[in-house]
Amino acid sequence: MKRFPISLILGGLITGALIGAALLSRVWTPADPTAMNILNRLKGPGEAGLLGADQIGRDVFSIIMAGAWTSLGIAMTATLLGGAIGTLIGVSAAAKGGVFERLAMAINGVLFSFPPILSAILLGALMGPGALTSITAIGVFMIPVFARVSRGAALQIWSRDFVQAARMAGKGPALITLQHILPNISAQIIVQLAIQTGLGILSEAGLSFLGMGVAPPTPSWGRMLADAQTFLSSAPHLVLAPGLAIALAVLGLNLLGDGLRDLTDPRRRQAS
Amino acid sequence: MPALKKLSRQIGGLVITLWIASLVIFLLIEAAPGDAASIMLGTNAAPDTVAALRSELGLDRPLLWRYAGWLGGVLSGDLGTSYTYGVPVAGLIADRLAVTVPLTLIATLLSILISLPLGVWAANRPNGPVDTLASLFSQVGIAVPNFWIGLLLILGVALGLGWLTPGGFPGWQAGIGAAFEALILPSIALAVPQSAVLTRVTRAAVIEVTNEDFVRTARAKGLSRGRALWRHTVPNALLPVVTMLGLQIPFLISGAVLVENVFTLPGIGTLAYQALSQRDLIVVQNVVLMFTLIVMVVNLIVDALYTVLDPRLRGRV
Predict the structure, then answer these.
(1) Which membrane topology term applies here (chain A) (predicted)?
(2) What does pTM read for this prediction?
(3) What is the ipTM of this complex?
């Protein structure tokens, strides 16, 4: 009985909508997300546009759409970069073993004690705020996560008979990793990519909230919340929309990741 | 004493990783544009004034010398003087820790108090109403940014209901009650994502242990369901929960930076962030090193907790 898990469907739909909104915002938004219209200042949902207008009269719905592009772009780039480096470290550690493995995992430990915000504070001192700082800070934190997951998964495959057979046939560790290990752990890596992209969106929002993300006027959900803080009592709608957008985006990616995991690894279905 | 040997090896590892971290932090800050002297004196300062201050601060000494000086200072508790505050960095950090440490401790305690009962209950009655609620809570709680929860709490509780303070910190000298009150909403904001993660792990761990033979044996011996759960299942399920608690520390610290910002708490996160925007790099450098130290020490404590919680690990090196 092969059934699609409900989380996969729901997560796929939300993530699809998120990607759709991000792509659509490149060619069309209801209003120009950077155009101010002081007459609409702080107007509520329905009074000006679907979700109201912000402190300088920009259309909130349009900024949310354009913010999806920023958020997703930074989170995905960081996750793919960190994922690629981390996976490379993980599978190499599993293949080489010994001192190399211990050293790689020790460096991982150091990297893991630098959460994105902390690296961003350090990198911000070096390069100033911006997309590159965000991507690097988030990407660096992804490296140990992927290294750990891919190493664990790779070690499991290494102990299997068909890998032993390949070794006996005279294949080197690099070739085995390429031909046997990577294809067999790709499902786990893809699951992790989805979940970590969600985490990347959360981190990006946090960095922009602190003013360490993309520079204005590039739309960003985190900065929308930082701006909204000033108008908390007079315009609460400004707090609700970006927060919901972040939460929904992360929820969608997490559900997608869970669903993919259930699909590829039925044993975990009852456990989590 | 294998346990002692293990601990000393772990402390050795900690010292080495901390040293690598200090080197990375130092080099990154060194590479940052603008040195302390020109920042302190502003853009209009005469070049020879800047040069004089540079040599007074020891900035004209070689790189390795300054690194050794910083490291020596860290070991003896002298972290230098903040450029913007004009006070010793060590005292500045200590003052701010008096806010951040209670904040994160209350949040951690709160998240354990929420997630442990919820996770155990959910696991005890899989697919029941509590289980549905718990899985809903853990999915949504992980996705919601803690600083947004903070904003919503200010909006709903502090401004809406008029309960508690919307932000700021009166200081511990204003009395424990007043200081504690200022930390309640921030702790809740910080605890929600944490408890979402922990609920999920607790539930999964309890379900896994429930299916194990020794629990079945306990039930077969005539132990009631509840007694088997609390005597055998839960203690054995605690291990992954503690692991997760350790893994969450970096997120807890990141979260504290954000939540302190929302509630304008004078904690270590606000200090780091303000120091960065004022380019008070000596503060940034020391705060980041201290964060790293905290993460690593907590991980060490979590590792030691394993041994306490799981007697099977006690003999292992």
Answers:
(1) Multi-pass membrane protein
(2) 0.89
(3) 0.90
